[in-house]
Design goal:
Order of helices and strands: HHHHHHHHHHHH
Number of helices: 12
Number of domains: 1
Strand content: under 5%
Number of strands: 0
Largest sheet: none
Shape: globular
Radius of gyration: 18 Å
Distance between the termini: 20 Å
Oligomer: single chain
Length: about 280
């Protein structure tokens, strides 16, 4: 059951990532993030309330919540910006390497990194370099900048790695559902409300379904991950880490993004490396 729930979470996250990228190409990264936070908070807060009251809100845990929100929002902003400049099928596998960043942070705080994890980290870096090489064809994409796009995706992986690591440290004390809800509430306060007050929040009827899928899909995916982790964290991590694979398949098959052979090789290396990292964790 855990593997099945993890697989469903990966599909949901993959679809949410693609939807967010397509919305960003219409609205821009900031507008997309503003709308996705607004729509996702409607789901995240009730789920948190259903889980009960938040846990220990000590100063260190509050600082952790702020760090998680900063990392999560920064990662989304970077990945949406990356998708405006490059292929979704390249951006998502690179950004999915956030587990490697969390592993590095674990080592810096005294935990031991296995040989498998170290080799997987090196492979993920090599795969990211290969995936960013060469020109590619992306229907409907204007101002393609694949190198910068890959760099932004790497930045998203770092931001999400920090979010994952700190969230893991405080999640049990605060409550995972409240960690997710706090990030969405922070996003509404910091990004959505200022745009709305300045009357700069753009309403696009065609983009609305996309930002709804992006925002609600992120919350749904995380909820499924929590359910899957009850049956085994390793299995859940392996399956959900393949959200980048799901999004890459959508990009190539449905969006008809055409990649060069070296890019396909890079993506394949990243997919295997991310799975190995999850298993090593």
């Amino acid at each position: 059951m855990g593997i099945l729930l993890g697989a469903v979470a990966a599909v949901v996250w993959g679809c949410a990532g693609v939807a967010g990228g397509l919305a960003a190409r219409r609205l821009g990264a900031r507008q997309t993030l503003a709308w996705s936070m607004l729509l996702s908070v409607i789901v995240a807060v009730p789920l948190a309330l259903l889980s009960g009251a938040p846990g220990e809100l000590s100063p260190i845990n509050l600082l952790g919540l702020v760090t998680v929100a900063t990392g999560g929002l920064s990662g989304l902003m970077l990945v949406y910006a990356a998708m405006r400049m490059g292929n979704i099928s390249v951006v998502t596998p690179i950004s999915a390497a956030y587990g490697g960043v969390a592993a590095i942070l674990s080592v810096l705080t005294g935990q031991t990194l296995t040989t498998t994890a170290m080799l997987a980290l090196a492979a993920a870096v090599i795969g990211a370099v290969l995936a960013s090489r060469g020109e590619s064809s992306t229907p409907g994409l204007v101002n393609a900048r694949p190198g910068l796009s890959a760099l932004l995706a790497g930045g998203a992986a770092i931001a999400w790695g920090v979010q994952l690591f700190v969230g893991g440290e405080i999640g049990e004390a605060v409550g995972q559902s409240w960690v997710v809800a706090f990030m969405r509430m922070a996003g509404v306060i910091v990004i959505t409300l200022p745009l709305a007050l300045r009357r700069e929040l753009v309403f696009d009827r065609q983009a609305l379904p996309l930002v709804a899928i992006a925002g609600i899909g992120e919350v749904a995916g995380f909820t499924l991950y929590l359910l899957a982790s009850r049956y085994g964290i390793a299995e859940a991590s392996v399956m959900t880490s393949q959200y980048g694979t799901v999004a890459a398949v959508i990009g190539v098959v449905i969006l008809r993004e055409r990649l060069q052979a070296i890019q396909l090789l890079g993506i394949a290396i990243i997919v295997v490396a991310v799975a190995a990292l999850a298993l090593a964790g």
